[in-house]
Amino acid sequence: MSVQLLRRLFTVDECYKMLEVGILTENERLEIIRGEIIKMSPISPPHAACVKRLNELFFLRLAKTVTAGIQDSVRLNDNSEPQPDISLLQRRPDFYDTQHPQPENVFLLIEVSDTTIKYDREIKVPLYAENNIVEVWLVNLTEKCLEVYRQPTGNGYEIVQTFQRGETVTIQALPDVTFTVDEILGN
Fold it and tell me: Which one, of 112, 103, 110, lies nearest residue 134 by Cα?
């Protein structure tokens, strides 16, 4: 016989109130996914290096075209505010000073994965699709490839492609700018 536990889910606004009163602290690496407060995994050196590499690539090629967020929150809905490793956003003069970006502001979200690949594939990517994030890249450090998800539906992404070393990829919203998988993964 299985036991069903009742869970108390939270809204994003309730989490911010917990932060204001000190129940949660800014030093904790947390994100809210489907109403659950999730403690994020520690960042390994290869993961951190990949995020830095992507940041530099985007800065050099897309400066003044997009706003790049590095491990910043994106508010998907009232009960989910993940922190993707990279977010490429529509430029705004206020740099999102008054609110976190929302799905309609996003060109691309990137998750860099080594120890969290199953979680990112099975939880975060479907969540992004449900919330109409037009494109997601999953940098798979373990298998040394890039998974690209496009055309979101309520059931996932219609187009899923895997790119290997030696191949090139473009961002759907910015097709004139090309990246190689080797540049993304590094040596």
Answer: 103
Could you tell me whether strands 168-171 and 67-70 are parallel, antiparallel, or unpaired per DSSP bridges? unpaired
- Rounded to whole angstroms, the Cα distance separating 1 from 124 reads 30
- Return the domain boundaries, the chain: 43-185
Annotate 83-121 with DSSP letters as a single string.
Answer: --SEEEE---TTTTSSS---GGGEEEEEEEESTTHHHII
Model pLDDT for residues 44-56, shown as the tens digit of each residue: 999 999 999 999 9
Overall pTM surpassing 0.70 (yes/no): yes
Task: Encode 119-153: b = buried (16+ Cβ within 10 Å), e = exposed.
Answer: ebbeebbbbbbbbebbbbbbbbbeeebbbbbbebe
CATH 2.120.10.80 fits 43-185, yes or no: no
Q: Which residue's entry shows tokens 């009742």?
A: 6
User: 185 CB contacts (<8 Å, ≥6 apart)?
Assistant: 50, 139, 141, 144, 146, 165
